Amino acid sequence: MEIERKFTIIRLPADLSAYPCHIIEQAYLNTDPVVRIRRQDDTYYLTYKGRGLLAREEYNLPLNEPSYYHLREKADGNIISKKRYVIPIDHPQFDATYMSSRQNSIDQLSLSVELDIFEAPFAPLIIAEVEFPDKETAEAFLPLDWFSQDVTNDPAYHNSNLSRQQF
């Protein structure tokens, strides 16, 4: 189960180059349900995603390079290219109700931001995603100070919908 929130951002974090970065290319064979292929650096995947915005099923299967490029020829719409920076969240903040019920487990919670900087034709789009272990944690999470609008429930920000945009 993938449980994540998505945000636009106000500004890029300082020292972005200090964080791990992945080069991602992905294309969609279908958008309902989502069937996607992805190249992340030198690793290739076929992904199925169920319906949903905050939470949905997700299954990843490995592909080899020739299979990825064979399937990419069959993809519909735009191929999405982006750089993904993985930024740890040192001290995640949550609403007071959640904090009082989970104090001991919050100290052991490891969260990170996956900051996607899109290339043309989607530039200058930048989206920050944070994945969570459960819905309660996701809903209680307080955005970082460099986050702007919460676009989790806006389907326009899903990559599968971006792949269908006309330019």
Can you walk through the features of this model?
- The protein has one domain: Beta Barrel (Hypothetical Protein Pfu-838710-001), CATH 2.40.320.10.
- It is built from four helices and twelve strands.
- It has 167 residues and is of the alpha+beta class.
- The mean pLDDT is 94.
- The chain starts with a strand and ends in a 5-residue tail after the last helix.
- Strands 1, 2, 3, 4, 5, 6, 7, 9, 10 and 12 form a ten-stranded antiparallel β-sheet that branches. Strands 8-11 form a two-stranded antiparallel sheet.
Quick one: CATH superfamily? Hypothetical Protein Pfu-838710-001
Number of structurally distinct domains: 1
Task: Report the total helices.
Answer: 4
The name of the CATH architecture is Beta Barrel
Helices and strands: which structural class? alpha+beta
Spans of 5+ residues with little confidence (pLDDT < 50)?
A: none
Distance between the termini: 33 Å
Backbone CA Rg: 17 Å
Could you give the topology of this structure?
Elements lengths: L1 E8 L11 E11 L2 E7 L2 E7 L5 E2 L1 E6 L1 H8 L3 E14 L3 E2 L1 H11 L4 E8 L7 E6 L3 H6 E2 L4 E4 L8 H4 L5
Antiparallel strand pairs: 1-5, 1-10, 1-12, 2-3, 2-7, 3-4, 4-6, 7-9, 8-11, 9-10
What tags apply to this protein structure?
167 residues; alpha+beta; ten-stranded antiparallel sheet; two-stranded antiparallel ribbon; 4 helices; 12 strands; 17% helix
Please provide a brief summary of the model:
This protein has helices at 65-72, 96-106, 135-140, 159-162, and strands at 2-9, 21-31, 34-40, 43-49, 55-56, 58-63, 76-89, 93-94, 111-118, 126-131, 141-142, 147-150. With 167 residues, it is α+β, with helices and mostly antiparallel strands.
